[in-house]
Amino acid sequence: MCIGRRNLDPKTRRFLAFGNLCLAIGLSLPFLGKCYGLRHHGWFDGLSGFLLGISLVFIVYAFRRSRRCSEKQLGGSPQ
Fold it and tell me: 7, 69 in Cβ contact below 8 A?
C-alpha cells in the first residue's frame, strides 16, 4: 500500500510523522541502553516496547485515516 504524503491532510501527516518518530526512538533505545549496563536495562526494554506499540497505533491510524480523505479535503478538483 503506497500513499503519497503530499496528498494527506495536515492532521494525518502529523500522526504519520509522530508514529515514525516513535518507531525510530523505540528501535534505537536498546542500542543506547547497552551503554548503561544492567542497571537500567529493564527501563530501556519497557520504554522501547511502549514506543514501538505507540508507533504501530499511530501509523495504522494514519493509514486508516488516509483512506477517508475526500477530494475536498485533499484540495483536488472534482471531475
Answer: yes
